[in-house]
Input
Amino acid sequence: MAYQKVEIGVSARHLHLTQEAVDVLFGKGHKIEPAVPTEGQFLSTTRATVIGPKGKFERVAVMGPCRKFNQFELSKSDTFTSGIAAPLRMSGDIEGTPGFTVVGTVGEITFDKGAIVAKRHIHMGSLTAERLGLKDGDSVQMCIKTDGRTLVFGDTIIRAEGPFDGEVLSHIDTDEGNAAGVGKGTCAYIIGLTSDLPDLD
Output
């Protein structure tokens, strides 16, 4: 496999909400607006408080546009602070996950599921994946090379979306970004499949 350069996006804790939930939390008809004009998924100007058994997080960003499900993505470190025992999952895989409470400007909701620690993943077009000999759902090794903190992350999931060959973007959380010393302009590279790692058991 030829090495593939990957842009890095570090995601802090955030919410995905349905329009019905937004109406309850922020008032009927409230619109989730992007902080910066953009296409596709975006960071909105809307913020909320998320409460767990042990603690709370204020000014949690709400991502847009609205989804068909409610989800709270947090880091492993956040699970200890909040007491929300979120499992490692891909976005949208929320069955059997713990709940949480969200407080908005006009209301609050306690959800019975939806908290996850998101699996790190890489977004690319299906043509890019084909060129690299990859497919949606493959697990790869991603090397983040930084000054003194270079790391190789296995178990990085490929999300191949749409018939294009262009930008390749990874999403990792703040724990992972800090561990690798990620800063402005840091890039990563796909260097192989996770299955290529030696069996050390």
About this structure: Residues 39 and 162 are 15 Å apart (CA to CA).
